[in-house]
Amino acid sequence: MSQSPQSPADKPSTEHTPATLHAPNPHHFEQMVEQASDAILLLNAQGVIQYANQAAAHLFGCPLERLRGETFGFVVAPDEPTEIEIAHATRGMLSADLRAVPMRMEGWEVSVVYLRDVTERKERLRDQLRLQEAIKGGRIGLFDWDLQTGEVYYSQEWKTQLGYAQEEIGSDYASWWTLLHPDDREATEKQVAEYLKCADGRRYVMEFRMRHKDGSYRWILAQGSLIHGPDGRPSHMVGSHLDITERRRTEGHLQRLAFAVDQSPSIVVITDPDGAIQYVNRRFCEVTGFAPEEMLGVNARALAQTPTEEIIQQNLAFTLRQGHTWEGEFRNRKKSGETYWEQARIYPVRDEDGTIVQYIKLAEDITDRKQLTDRLDFLAFHDTLTGLPNRSLMMDRLGQALVQARRDRTLLAVAFLDLDDFKTVNDSLGHGQGDQLLRMVAERLKGLLREGDTVARFGGDEFILMLTQLQAPRDVIPVVEKLQMAFTQPITLGQIPLVTGFSIGLAMYPTDSHRAEDLIRHADIALSRAKAQGPRSYHFYTRDLDEQLHERMQLEQAMRRGLERGQFLLHYQPRMDMRDNRMLSMEALIRWQHPDWGMVMPGRFIPLAEETGLIIELGSEVLRQACLQLKSWQSSGRPLLPLAINLSPREFHQTDLLERIMGIMEEYEVDTRLIEFEITESAAMSSVEQTIDILSQLTRMGFRISIDDFGTAYSSLNYLKRLPVQSLKIDQSFVKDLANDPAAHPEDAAIIRAIIGLAGNLGLEVIAEGVETTAQRDFLLKHGCPVGQGYLFSRPVAAAEIETRFTA
User: What b/e sequence results for 177-190 when a residue is b if at least 16 CB atoms lie within 10 Å of its CB, and e otherwise?
Assistant: First the structure.
């Protein structure tokens, strides 16, 4: 509406006002118009509103002052009712019936417009139309049961659902009852009767079967409500019937399908797009031990075994993200934590728009089949008796190792092992015990492997050991020696302890060959040579092996035989009081009288004995011979002087050291005060607390203790003062450099003076080794060291020669 520049109300009137504009009581007229429920407008000829009542202001949603002077904006046809749409300020578009009455007022042509809000009436009409359309489109049949008269109204759709024409169904309760399925009548009538008694406002809902005109029965969903009369009692029951036969048929189909899925021998899992589990069937629960409610909402990935199946899981996730079906094998976890193998097929389920809404997994528990397959695969490449790789697998691994060795430029060794005296075990104890021995030998061999090494059984009592990542041929020796040492410990068969060992043939890559077959063959040839040398021997095939390596091998094997055949003996070197040249004690030194090599000095075989562990047996042999010699001198009436014996570092740290020593002492009944043990400074400081404990026990047993080679290693004075020792031996390297002129060697002289001073402050005796000249002797005496040992007094000599000292 818009404001008009001029209106009849603004124009001065010069004409006589018609009598119709003057009501007998204007006040009453105005009051009636203002209180009218319809909107009333007075329009001039130009359609400008001259007057509007309160109902009009309410209809347009604006104040009266705004309406007056506005252009009405609608075409007004006299005596032609029409419907218009009015824009309300807050309620939106409203519908109104419009009727206009033309008038002449005070000489002006005007129109009185009557407007009635019909918005709600139109909406109710629309609702009724929508309801009718919904009922018709939804094929809903209606009924209205007059509970007072018993008359029932059945809509046309109600009758059509069952295939009947309008006139074929009566208007009573019996018409409905007779169509009910005989099996449903009793329950249905009972529920209807119970519902009619209730007064709580709830709806009647029930499903039952009714007979179609064609003789079939249709499932009907019946719903209804009670309408109460003025007296509060139910007067009508109104409601609807809906044919749900197809739904029931579908539900039945789905129930049968769900039952089939739940009873399926396959594992079935349904998840949402993010992997959260929505359904698991009975077979899943049987396999995993989980209850269905425990799995609801759990992410399926939580059951997967990672990181062992990480690559599989990544491939699975990628395939599903692409919208494809994934098939394969992977492991899942049971409730107990145990794993099982699945053969699975996972495929996406899409909605009408193609969006993935679910994933379905169909799987089989293939754990038993997998284990059988793995077992067959294992047997194809492993020895059935020992479980070790067989010849085929070893050759494959050896081929791969040779490729790796060529790439890394490292060495590789093949060791052919043959169990010593296995035939004797088989013949004497039987093949069953022989098989048990092979199994126990295999277990011990596996425990000795380094990372990257392989041991295989080639048949009978023959094994192959592949050693990788070697830098030099000498790296093989510690491994072989460790192997030989491990088999010095007895293996118990039944109640019989059995010590066995190996003859070993060795071949090296690249020295001996670049081919796996040749390396095996060369190792076999070397094994034959090792067997010829005797039990527990090993031999290299290579002809280019360093002479020192070959000598070392020969030396070790000869040393073992020397111990077995009593080739080791003791020589004795006196310790002298350098003041009066009196013998105070002796040091027992091991010598090896080899039948071919002659006298072998300790410097040649002691380091090897330490490395191989033979020093343990050698140390026991020294103590036994020392005790035997003391007993011999005691029996002959010669005076007994203490004997000093070296304890090697390896021997010193043996757990059975004390038991072994006391066993020998008790066997030969020798006074422990006649034995002094010498331990090197480096061995003493390698594990100080353990050293203190062992030396304390030896001291309590009556033995004397000396620190040998003092000054050649790092000693903590804090620990040194705690060691239960009686003497320090100055290493001969310091004494030797003094030669004939101590003043020319001030550093060595200073070290010797410091050791003598330290020993004196700690209350220890000090002994100098390697005294060969009078100048050395005089220097030592001058600075407080009265006891010396060396060639100036005597070389180490046999027992027969040292005995002359007793009588001198």
Answer: eebbeeebeeebee
Of 619, 722, 713, 720, give the one whose Cα is nearest residue 675: 619
- Radius of gyration of the chain, Cα coordinates, nearest whole angstrom: 58
Please state at what angle helix 602-612 crosses helix 614-635, rounded to 10 degrees: 120
- Structure-block tokens of residue 704: 């004397």
Alpha helices by DSSP H, listed for 535-601, are 547-564
Residue 2: predicted pLDDT: 41
Burial class for 802, CB neighbours closer than 10 Å (0-12, 13-18, 19+): buried
SS3 track for 271-308:
ECCCCEEEEECHHHHHHHCCCHHHHCCCEHHHHECCCC
Pairing of strands 643-647, 582-594: parallel
pLDDT tens per residue, range 413-454: 999 999 888 887 777 778 888 889 899 999 999 888 888 889
pTM, two decimals, is: 0.41
Nearest to 393 by CA among 466, 449, 308: 466
Q: What is the CATH T-level fold of the domain 138-249, as seen in this structure? A: Beta-Lactamase (3.30.450)
Nearest to 48 by CA among 81, 21, 10: 10
* Confidence label for 23 from pLDDT (cuts 50, 70 and 90): very low
Instruction: Tell me which amino acid residue 323 is.
Output: G
Cβ pair 544, 534 in contact under 8 A:
no
Q: Does domain 568-807 have CATH number 3.20.20.450?
A: yes
Q: Convert the pLDDT of each residue in 263-321 to its tens digit.
A: 788 889 999 998 899 999 999 999 999 999 999 998 888 887 655 467 777 788 888 88
Contact 759, 719 (CB under 8 A): no
- Nearby residues of 439 by Cβ (< 8 Å), 6 or more positions away: 385, 386
CATH ID of 385-545, from 3.40.50.2000, 3.10.20.30, 3.30.70.270, 3.40.50.150: 3.30.70.270
Residue with tokens 């000498």: 474
Q: What is the mean pLDDT of residues 532-554?
A: 70
Q: Is the pLDDT of residue 21 over 60?
A: no
User: Looking at the domain that runs over 263-371, which CATH code has it been given?
Assistant: 3.30.450.20
Q: Please, what CATH class does the domain formed by 19-122 belong to?
A: alpha beta
Q: Which residue has the tokens 């193609």?
A: 354
- Strand spans (E) along 44-90: 49-52, 82-88
* pLDDT of the residue at 532: 74
Lowest mean pLDDT segment, chosen from 181-185, 240-244, 784-788? 240-244
User: What are 569's two structure tokens?
Assistant: 């003996």
Mean pLDDT along residues 636-650: 90
Residue 807 has pLDDT above 50, yes or no: yes
